[in-house]
Amino acid sequence: MRQFLLLLVLSLSFCSAQKRKASDTFQQGIELTQQADSLITLGKYKEAIMVLNNAIIKTPDNYTAYLLRAQSKYILKDYTGAFQDYKSVLMMNLGKEDNQALAYANLGIGTCYNRAKNYLEAIRYLKAAKAIDSTDTRTYDGLAYSYFSLTQFDDALVELNALLKINPQHKEAYLSRGIAFLFKKQYQSAIADFDRALALDAGYIVAYHNRGKAKKALGDKAGCCQDWHKCYALGMESIEPDLKTVCD
């Protein structure tokens, strides 16, 4: 199962509520935040963090700046720093008009906890994010990953089913649901989901690999080897020992 890396692609729409109460200093903070957002778009995360540091000094309650800085820190693998920035947002006295910021902060904290393998805490925060915004597929992604890591496959399936209702074109969700079925030894259901993932991406190596596993479990050696040879043809050299053992 792929590790769900949930990078938060943020919109500066959060700033709209804050602009209504803007002073000159606050406006400077908003402009710095917009500048940092442009730097993030260019992949200049260190530079963005420096600009956001100044934005936060000028506007300590600028939650958009904290969220963007958390995103940048996460990408740079400063997970502790990202966690602290997300926490700072939750500590602000935000109202209902700021619910989207709260959802992002809870999602970010849950993602950090998943990264730290603290899955129970991840579930707590991801559920909080889902309670605020039930349309964000990343929350279901994160919860499925948490439950999967705890080998709670039925719970993972619940989240993946909900995710796929929101986005039926989510190939990673079909892959993950297929792997959950694989662990539950429901091989036909697993194959059906790997088929769906491959219908969306014919070059999806990991789907071929896992579909081969399911076919092997059903005694379909020819089908298994066909999928694993496809993996090798697509560049998965690590499959070669299995090809020699099972298929040659």
TrEMBL record:
One Pfam family linked to the record: TPR_16
GO biological process: receptor-mediated virion attachment to host cell
InterPro entries cross-referenced by the UniProt entry: TPR-like_helical_dom_sf, TPR_rpt, Ycf3
Organism superkingdom: Bacteria
TPR repeat windows: 137-170, 171-204
Keywords of this entry: Repeat, Signal, TPR repeat
Single GO cellular component term: cell outer membrane
Signal peptide: 1-22
Protein name, UniProt field: Tetratricopeptide repeat protein
Organism: Spirosoma arboris
Organism placement in taxonomy: Bacteria, Pseudomonadati, Bacteroidota, Cytophagia, Cytophagales
